[in-house]
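Model it.
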Amino acid sequence: MTQFAVLKRLTGPDRAEVEVLRGTACGGDCGSCEACHYTSKIRVEARNDIGAQPGDRVEIEARTSKVLGAAVLVYVVPFVLFFIGYAIAAASGLGEGLSMVISFAFFAAGMGIAVFVGRRKKNPITYSITSIIGHEAV
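Modeled.
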């Protein structure tokens, strides 16, 4: 998975902090709708084997399998558990309200699993700078 970023600062001989502009649903023209209240930029550390310097616009890459695995853990597992919880409660003959409460408890358990696994992960998502695209003011 590749993304574009701006190198903000060097953090070591072969490490750098880059700022990645995340995409938004509206296309990033926040001046038109003013619905975005949060910044859409995130900073990550990336391996800098090509010697990029602060201010360089760069292309960074992460292993797609790790990114997709994290997405499944955060987005799919809780919802699957939500429906499993509801199915178990409904099959047990519980009422609609209690079935919903149990399904939300299963959803919360799924979120807890995602947090637990995310914190204990021994191989986090790592980024590497693959090319320099240009230069812009820092």
